[in-house]
Design goal:
alpha+beta, five-stranded antiparallel beta sheet
Length: 446
Amino acid sequence: MLHALELTDASGRPTDLGRRIAPLPVGAREARALLEGAAMLGDARAAAEVVAAISDDHRDADADLGRMLRELRDGRGPGAARWRRETTRLARIAASDAAPRGSDSGLSAPGGSDSGLSAPGAVVALARPDWIARRTGPHDRTYLLASGTRAALPAGSALSASEWLAVWEVQRAEGRAAEGTGAVIRTAAALAEEDALAIGAGLTSDERAARIEGGRVRVRRTRRLGAILLAETPVAATPEDVGPAFAAHVRERGLDALAWRPEALALRARLALVHREIGRPWPEVDDASLLARIDDWLGPDLSRLRADVSLHGIDVEAALRRLLPWPEAARLDELVPERLAVPSGSRVRIDYAGDVDARPVVAVKLQEVFGLAQTPSLVDGRVPVLFHLLSPARRPLAVTDDLASFWNGPYQQVRREMRGRYPRHPWPEDPWTAPATAKTNRAAGR
């Protein structure tokens, strides 16, 4: 808050204004508004009137600080005498300030044809620059504050004719009073646009925002006062815009925006298994982790894209390999091989796909693993392979991660059911000594 009020610098040390305000018997926001407002208006008492009003419990039913000040000056309403005494005290403090800010403030007296009406708003804005607010639509009573909060004026408030407000007090509320914003403005003053821009200059930012629209990179230059959009202009995309735009597109749409070919899905599943069993330094590859590290693994490919090309041309498998830890990566194929050698001589693809707790699966014809007693395990023996033993028509006959128990028990039932259905294939009574094969009986005898 102190930095936003220009009372401390970027390193946290007091500025000249901060040193002048520090000893004053006034709160930091109010003191800044008092001294800066007096210098800007050239009238210590005018600034003191506003600060005295917002510092006490004075309220206006329509949230209109300007009207409240007029009533206090006329002596109407409770607390008018107290307000006058406080105004005199504050005006004396402002007048005694030994080093009034001059032209170095960058501020001048409130401008515009309604300068008199804008003066209270300028003083309030000096106290709360983060609550400078702009109307969200021509006929709305809803305002967007520079802080990003939305709040509504009370219904019928004369302030709703003002595009810009300086807001001092906001109260949580529900229902029609809040216009769906969840908050109602309780004290505010009209503010001229030029005063809003001058006082809120420290909150302004200029940015280039690149997005993917219609499959192309579109860039807009935006100028904002905090969260308030001041201007937006389309500009030509540059090569520097492309990578961030596509990265933002993937974060917004999710990883499905990429073309996940089978090789990429398999590598991701293998990495997920190794991380699950070993942990670091093997990377997490769930959606949230990959999106959080998108610049690390996908960034180089995104930066090479042209503004008019598709994400589907990216080799996602190669991109994922950028996450492999070194030198541990040299053991990837040892820990989670792509294929498993079986007794028939075939090398069968291992399916790692599935949910986070899925087991690696080898789907292979039953005859190709005759004699295999010890179920192979992956990740240094931590994870046994789950065998899907298939018929000659590649339909599942059994699922097991204990081949020895299968040969000694359920195999005989499978043999009785299958030998008549597939007579051309071997169904030996003793699977321990039968040669493993992928061939039919006739082909094996040649």
